[in-house]
User: Which sequence fits this backbone?
């Protein structure tokens, strides 16, 4: 009676570990940026429900203040990335920014994030 073994060989196991390690390394590089983006979205949603954003500079300051509580890095979103535009006769706060993440050697990830929310009870001055 011959018994036949089944399973993965050592070389196969090492190859699986290398592939899993590669994807784990990629996740460790990318996940913090997406968590930071969720903080930006949370700060924007807070601004949308509060209202009272009279001008673009006030809206930028208020957004930066709220993002500081969400652990958003100050160098991530610059003032030029935050705009307030009118859509359907209502002010809309729009944040669009790119984040470059070094990966391996000369390989980088370029992530583009964009979100817009309608602001409440703004007078429209300065738009």
Assistant:
């Amino acid at each position: 009676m011959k018994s036949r073994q089944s399973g993965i060989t050592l070389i196969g196991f090492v190859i699986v570990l290398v592939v899993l390690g590669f994807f784990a390394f990629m996740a460790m590089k990318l996940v913090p940026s997406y968590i930071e983006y969720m903080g930006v979205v949370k700060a924007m949603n807070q601004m949308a429900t509060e209202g009272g954003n009279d001008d673009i500079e006030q809206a930028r300051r208020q957004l930066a203040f709220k993002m500081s509580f969400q652990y958003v890095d100050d160098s991530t979103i610059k003032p030029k990335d935050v705009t307030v535009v009118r859509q359907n006769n209502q002010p809309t706060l729009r944040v669009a920014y790119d984040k470059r993440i070094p990966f391996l050697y000369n390989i980088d990830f370029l992530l583009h994030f964009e979100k817009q929310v309608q602001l409440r009870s703004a007078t429209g001055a300065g738009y």
Q: What stands out?
A: Strands lie at 82-87, 90-104, 107-118.
